[in-house]
What we know:
binds magnesium ion; three-stranded antiparallel β-sheet; six-stranded mixed β-sheet
Amino acid sequence: MHPFKVLIAEDKVKERVSKMGAEISKYYQDRKTKKLVVIGVLKGSFVFLADLVRSLNVPCEIEFVEVSSYGAGTMSSGDIQLLRDIAVPLEGQDVLVVEDIIDTGRTIYYLLEHLRKSHRPHSIAVAALLYKPSRSVNQIKPDFLGFTIEDKFVIGYGLDFNNRFREIPDVAIYEEGKVSIDL
Ligand code: IMP
Ligand code: MG
């Protein structure tokens, strides 16, 4: 167990993610897509992506990009760096970007621009587990969304504070001082 206040319990998260898998499958089935490339945004999306792809019933390939937008702490630096790019061709493919959370929207904006300009896929959609509309600076909304949440810094189910707490199975609210961590 962990000492943090649970915002969305593990079973609720799983239930919603499995429904998202069904929605996404339906969308791509209807499009009669040739190949779907699911792109996870490291590191935060790894738990969500693992559950989501197992709820899909359309074939897909899985790739990862890594971006860093946070220094230490809970405030986005706004200075986004691409730490790992896609190494396979995406031209003509349908791409689904999987993000843990859309907060200010800067990271997803940067990534969508990058993927469109440098990789030229046939289509791009975004699946995000969480969305904080109150923090958005560009009104980018995910095409597939798990939960809208208020402006609280959350951890667990892949989300971290300073690289900690990703393994917590619930989505929980981070509060300073609950556990001692080395910064
Ligand atoms: P944005 O660029 O402000 O939309 O931030 C997106 C990234 O910041 C996400 O992919 C997360 O890695 C991180 N992030 C934003 N809000 C939270 C949070 O509440 N908890 C943990 N990570 C967050
Ligand atoms: Mg992230």
